[in-house]
Design goal:
By secondary structure, the protein is an alpha+beta fold. 22% of the residues lie in helices and 32% in strands.
Length: 261
């Protein structure tokens, strides 16, 4: 029976939904993480009697026809781009992005990647890098004798020394915006890569061209809503159970058929 395969597509879809929710919950404490949502569409339809077909016997036109749906298929796992809450850390090199935009980093391959994880560090050479050691672009080097670092809302980085009262400008971070940020490819480690769907990065100063501003001493929390995730988890579980019941019912029907003499 077709119902077995149709119900199997439903179980597969609900399983994918649970896996997406599981990933969201696993990342509910990941800096700058945005929740994902699995989206689905109905599969093809078998046309048993097409609507509008003329009945050969009396010439009437079928008003609706007979179409049998063949299940469901996944179409997308969409990122919900919501601003996460900001948590104060007090660290000089922690910067949160308030609004749109990503920090650009340089990978070991020389390619660029983008992140909203502002938990920055200082390398042995004094460069400002990510937690995984990727250099933030454009490069900013902190002198070894710097007493403290200040990063303002537009991304300007100042160093303060013991022998001077005024700060020395070391460089300025820029932010990258994308026409379709949902089209970025997640690489793991809080990094994203541009794709044809996202379009090229539009680099600009923080606070301009629709980009957000930077706040030093803060990190952006994950935007995962635990209550919503649990609610959707329950819905997905019920959907999976109902599809399983369909398979069970079809199995009983097939068993009854084999007993007919």
């Amino acid at each position: 029976m077709r119902a077995l395969k149709i119900a199997a597509t439903g179980m597969s879809a609900q399983q994918m939904r649970v896996e997406t929710i599981s990933n969201n919950l696993a990342n509910m404490n990941t800096t700058g993480y945005n929740a994902r949502r699995a989206e689905f569409a109905d599969l093809h339809y078998q046309q048993m009697a097409r609507a509008g077909t003329v009945n050969a016997s009396d010439g009437t036109v079928l008003p609706t026809g007979v179409q049998l749906g063949l299940g469901v298929r996944p179409t997308a796992v969409t990122v919900h781009l919501a601003q996460g809450a900001l948590s104060a850390t007090g660290n000089d090199l922690d910067v949160a992005i308030e609004g749109n935009g990503y920090l650009e980093v340089t990978l070991p391959s020389g390619l660029s990647a983008y992140t909203r994880d502002g938990g920055l560090k200082r390398s042995a050479e004094g460069l400002i890098v990510t937690s995984d050691g990727h250099t933030v672009s454009p490069e900013v080097t902190i002198p070894s004798d710097a007493r403290s670092i200040s990063i303002n809302a537009t991304g300007e980085v100042y160093a303060y020394f013991d022998d001077t009262a005024e700060g020395q400008l070391l460089g300025q971070f820029v932010l990258a915006g994308f026409t379709n940020a949902k089209g970025l490819e997640a690489m793991g480690s809080n990094l994203f890569a541009e794709t044809e769907a996202s379009g090229p990065p539009l680099l600009s100063e923080a606070g301009s061209d629709g980009l957000g501003t930077l706040r030093q001493g803060y990190l952006e929390d994950s935007s995962v809503d635990a209550v919503r995730e649990v609610t959707e988890l329950i819905e997905a579980q019920r959907g999976y159970e109902m599809n399983a019941k369909v398979i069970s019912a079809v199995d009983q029907m097939m068993g009854a058929t084999t007993q007919v003499r």
